[in-house]
Amino acid sequence: MFDHLDLLPEDPILGLSQVFAKDDRSDKVNLAVGVYQDDSGNTPVLEVVKQGQRRMLDEQISKAYIAQAGDVKFLSGMSELILGSINLNLDSAGRVAAVQTPGGCGALRIASEVLGKSRPDCTVWVSTPTWANHQPLIGSAGLTIVAYPYYDLNSKTIQFDDMLAALEQASAGDAVLLHACCHNPTGADLTSAQWDALTKLCKSKDLFPFIDFAYQGFGQGLQEDAYGVRKMAAELDELIISASCSKNFGLYRERVGALLFIGAERESTAAAKSHALVAARRSYTMAPYHGAGIVGYILHNAELRAAWEIELSSMRNRINGMRKRLCDGLNQAQSTIDFSFIDGQWGMFSFLGISKEHVLELRDKFGIYILESSRINVAGISDSNIDYVVEKIASVVDQA
Ligand SMILES: Cc1ncc(COP(=O)(O)O)c(C=O)c1O
Prior knowledge:
This protein is α/β, with parallel strands linked by helices.
């Protein structure tokens, strides 16, 4: 059976992590991997997660299956977290339905299957660039993917006029994949005014927003990061939101995500959810409970919720503080590139805008690992490595 199969190449990011692990230089720095790291380079279990987990397990009386849509406390907590005050209105009108999924990836994949069921010829517009996993998750559900311009590598700004012009060409019913905040890989986020304009365009052209919300609370704040999602949910008839708790709860390996359908009315919303449940049944059937149980517990307990918000803001402040230090450090240490854009971006990622040759030189000569696209994870920078990182990046770009 297996002798017909070719050996496939490794995922480039995971493959690079393995090379990093084998690198025995003591001053090596991993800015490639896409997870949060604290100042010691650890991806910590949040204190509030330890507490919520303990209490959730103490109170647990069964390991029987939960409802197929997921844990009720988790789903209501996530709907409120994502939609804020408009959740109540949408919920009482039956216009919001939530499904628990294995991570944000599970939500993106199930959402794509529902889109394909609803419109077999559905085209999904995605930003250039976008997270490398969007293509396989959405494309393998049979949807057609078309790119819209998003980020200009030269000016380091969002090409908003070009983005709107491209989406003007979309057909009614096409889906537009948007990053709610902390755009991966660029860190360049839409302003409130740009979200407003995009909402208008989606309304007038009958485009369907498909919003990937993987980093709520990692950019400007829990509420601020939800601006675009809530604007669209308040003003448009229909959209999909795919959320992840990997980053903001640090629950990467527990695979915790949620898929929210906002529908025009009760019946179509329920129908969308039913298709998501059938799509889930055909593959993993039910999402894992453990991580969602912890999140549901925290979101419904005032003391733990407040503690979570404090821990989340300390992760966010660390990232934003490192952005400022990296930006200032690089601007002082070299004169070839203006790195001011780093401080105006949000979340863990930015494109440094350096060449592939310089990326490889940083890796080979100095053990500083960056993706070939020049995407860095700012959270990989710490008190102990920032001077080294700044000095070495400056040394390669200045020799150009
Ligand atoms: C843009 C984006 N969407 C979705 C995800 C999904 O993450 P997970 O499946 O781990 O929850 C990620 C994770 O890196 C991401 O960067």
